[in-house]
Amino acid sequence: MTTTIEREARWCAHNYQPLPVVLARGQGALLWDEGGRRFIDMMGCYSAVSLGHGHPRILKALTEQASRLAVVSRAYHTTRLGPFLELACRLTGMDGGLPMNTGAEAVETALKAARKWAYTVKGVPPGQARIISCADNFHGRTIAIIGMSSVAQYRDGFGPYPAGFDQVPFGDAEALERAITPDTAAFLVEPIQGEAGIVVPPPGYLAACRRICDDHRVLLIADEVQTGLGRTGRLLACEHDGITPDAVTLGKALGGGVLPVSLFLARREVIDVFRPGDHGSTFGGNPLAAAVGHEALSVLVEEGLIERSAELGERLLSSLRGLGSPLITQIRGKGLFVGIQFDAARVTAHEVCDRLAAKGVLTKDTHRNSIRFAPPLVITPELLDEAVAALRRVLSEVA
Ligand code: PMP
């Protein structure tokens, strides 16, 4: 008899390396496998499940809207899109938005907006606009986006890539200033690098980038697909540095943990570059996604989850630091967005994840021989303590 894992491996492309668990149910910050075994979800679907699995308000919005009207395309106006974008803009300080589905699509939208803005507003000669991104970035998996990547694993074997992209080290504002030319349209940055291993830049970095972008008339685009919506203890991670970007991408948690919902949000001058027919998506901004996205934003704010992320994040960081393990070389993060790096000579992050799973704690390794702890923001302090205790036991096993 073929097992569930064998069947998936037989029919699904092998573009992931899943841990050997078969999940069947979730509630809040907990998951259960097909045999009924309980796990603490310390990954939250790469930060997409911030409100927890099966949040009652999200399920209600989802089912009510699905039974009323789910998708009709943007060939028509619908009741849900305006209120959703209005709320998203009010919360982020942006003037307008363009709805998409996945994070990568929101980033692609940002790249197109930046180029068109450069030609139509800044006066860059046609075909010459350049966009600067950071080394070790992660913005998604499309050809243009991986063309901006410095990570061989993402890029190799998929070229050629579009031209017009430059790269600077993350966290180095002077390097950004040196890289800017008159043709530079935008600087695209993750306020905290997520997939690179949860890398926090030096304080003041984004504020310095903001000044440099203003001086050179370059758009500052914050990719907050992962860091946004309370993940780092603020609505947007940019707020840690007290800045407002010219444009923001949101995704992941915007879908309430049930749907892909993303947004490109921007200042008036930028959002207004789009004209009928020059960009779009069949599903982007559909009534179901808009209803769920609106509810996700409302839940986040009304249930105090942003503050909760900040408080629990402090608690998590201090209990991790209290582990005092020589196997841990670095602990990085803000809010419930934490990377724990291990001494590669002594243990791999992959092994730590395997052993944590055996103790009922699920997460995934990431770059820099690190694991992430980014649970749903609704997690209880007790479950966080349980996860840290499991990590303590794993470290004593491999020490
Ligand atoms: N931007 C960032 C910062 C991300 O972390 C991710 C996903 N990890 C993406 C974009 C891409 O999002 P998606 O997988 O929904 O396309």
UniProtKB/TrEMBL annotation:
Segments passing through the bilayer: none
Record bears the keyword Chloroplast: no
An annotated GO BP: L-proline biosynthetic process
Recorded GO MF terms: identical protein binding; ornithine aminotransferase activity; pyridoxal phosphate binding
Cofactor(s) the protein needs: pyridoxal 5'-phosphate
Record pathway: Amino-acid biosynthesis; L-proline biosynthesis; L-glutamate 5-semialdehyde from L-ornithine: step 1/1
InterPro entries, A to Z: Aminotrans_3, Aminotrans_3_PPA_site, Class-III_PLP-dep_AT, Orn_aminotrans, PyrdxlP-dep_Trfase, PyrdxlP-dep_Trfase_major, PyrdxlP-dep_Trfase_small
Pfam families attached to this UniProt entry: Aminotran_3
Protein EC: 2.6.1.13
Keywords assigned: Aminotransferase, Pyridoxal phosphate, Transferase
Family of this protein: Belongs to the class-III pyridoxal-phosphate-dependent aminotransferase family.
Protein name: ornithine aminotransferase
